[in-house]
Amino acid sequence: MDLDLRTLRYFVAVAETLNFSKAAARLNMSQPPLSLAIRQLETQMGTRLFERNSRHVSLTAAGAMLYKEALFLLSHAGSLKNRLQHTSDHGRLRIGFVGSMVYRGLPALLDQLRAGREDINIELAESNSGDIVDKVAMGHVDLGFIHSNQVPAELQDEIIFTEPFVLCVHKDNPILKKPAPTLTDFSDQRFIFFSRHVSPVYYEILLSLCISAGFFPQAVDETRHWLSILSLVSQNMGVSLVPACMKQCGLPDLRFIEFEHSQRSITSVIWAKQRRDPVVDQSLETIRRFYELER
């Protein structure tokens, strides 16, 4: 036997008003469809639910029993809907992040976001900046942490972290034997850059750092992730310029060299202007406080 919630609401309205006209007005519908729905319900139940004549409507014993059950079912359905909405929307925060955020305080930030909010469910998705921008724009992600990148007009961005670049080389690189090697000393070596397609801004920054040091890199390999770059350098497959936070990566056989320059690696948080909710707003405030303390 299938009972739909709409029919139960019709039945409850009649049971509580004991008047088909008043019940129809309460339900914002006309009386004939309501009378038909009640007759169909009685047929489905196999018993009369109301005693009615031209002047009086009353519940039968079966009707009184169904009224109690209907109230329970409708109440349970309403509370279930609220719990599901709370779980799937109000308590959920979907975060897209570039891998290097792990070394920019992401684990500690997540602890802060969860602090005092036992109902929050944080979903993490690692990707590159371009993909994160697309996911936030499409509503698949609530907040995104990205590198320097242009964002569409429907998104809002805010810089949360800036840092210098460092030169990353293998520990056995012969140029390290010099007392104070500079970026220019590595001009003839193979450079590994962040992908021009994934992040044109970062690619141009890295290229400009080399040009400012007086050379144009002749051999350039490209990858989509900073950790991939560091892994290649750790296998002595080239040298690179990486954000200073990557010194914390823990990969073996790497050496990091600081050098003078004005460009900075910029990390921003992005969100959709038109899809704001309390969880996103509260999380943004936590993010601002966290990085103000860390700077």
Automatic annotation (TrEMBL):
GO molecular function: DNA binding; DNA-binding transcription factor activity
Alphabetical keyword list: DNA-binding, Transcription, Transcription regulation
Domain of life: Bacteria
Segments forming domain HTH lysR-type: 3-60
Signal peptide (from-to): none
GO cellular component, one term: protein-DNA complex
Transcription regulation as UniProt keyword: yes
Family: Belongs to the LysR transcriptional regulatory family.
Protein name: LysR family transcriptional regulator
Species in which this protein is naturally found: Advenella kashmirensis W13003
